[in-house]
């Protein structure tokens, strides 16, 4: 039977030749690197919407949700969706919680227990099977973690452990420890298991918030990030590495940190390519437009217009004469208006007459997801039924 064994929450000081030091050095370079991407802001924000969708699906799948990426995309394109199933609502909740993090959390901002409880309330809102009868409240009964040798602490100890965790995260340690603290906080939260249900979803949201806190530029025109991709492609390894940290030994905790931070480094290296507009146009947007035309979701003219706008990045109707040869100004304006109404062209701002390609909420989404999958941005596990 699993037993509870207390161990202290403390920093690691890995040896200079530890693989963990190499990973931290690379991540510190990326954290401080000035991002000079050429992807237009409206396009970046749409990509962020898609990555939030991938994050929510990945986190839900770890918990046993069987929805595939293809299924989830189709629900996003349904013009009049029925009441969401529990599984779909679970993912919608995670997306809402990620938006909450970005709206209410900033670099350097102290973490609070209230913020963590808000994340829990958002994650379990309206759910039946994956919900919680006391959203946002710490548990008052014992819990067990399936297939784990670790028993979480008694409910009476949860408040003091959570206070300790928040103090640890907010403590003014040297910045070289920030990434180690992110990984250790993820484990400690899972080790405490402070809520009756939804702990896994909340701890992965917390990891995203801590990366913002510690200066990874994932807001506004910054970088994209899907930290749950680190955990969701091999769920068994995720749990095995948590078990290593559960031992409380320096060796086990160091293995856990190396696992988490190596995964985040790999994800950052991949997704930073998407802030290069040439790469985005050639490998993601243009193939997505052509895929929509192959499926007869676009006309030849619409394909030419969207490909032109994709290549230009930002375009006015007057820039599209070659895409609509022989058309007069009124005809071009009408065609552009149709694509705006279909959300396949997005004004730079309300009322503006400059546009970028829109793909987050229309039939182009299928092609963009397909391109992202082919380029290795989507964990393979999200496309498989369990």
Number of domains: 2
CATH topology value of the largest domain: Fic-like fold
What's the CATH class of the largest domain, please? Mainly Alpha
Please give the number of β-strands.
Answer: 2
Which structural class matches the secondary elements? mainly alpha
Strand order in the largest sheet: 1-2
Task: Describe what this molecule looks like in 3D.
The chain contains 15 helices and 2 strands. By secondary structure, it is mainly α. It has 2 domains: 19-275, Orthogonal Bundle (Fic-like fold), CATH 1.10.3290; 277-383, Arc Repressor Mutant, subunit A (Orthogonal Bundle), CATH 1.10.10. The chain has a two-stranded antiparallel ribbon with strand order 1-2. Strand 1 and strand 2 (355-357) form a beta hairpin. The radius of gyration is 23 Å and the shape is elongated.
Please tag this protein with its features.
386 residues, mainly alpha, Fic-like fold, Arc Repressor Mutant, subunit A, two-stranded antiparallel ribbon, elongated
Architecture blueprint of SSEs:
Elements: H1 19-32, H2 41-62, H3 69-77, H4 86-104, H5 113-124, H6 158-170, H7 178-192, H8 199-213, H9 229-232, H10 235-246, H11 250-271, H12 277-294, H13 300-312, H14 329-341, E1 345-347, E2 355-357, H15 364-374
Antiparallel strand pairs: 1-2
Give a brief rundown of this model.
The protein is an all-alpha fold and 386 residues long.
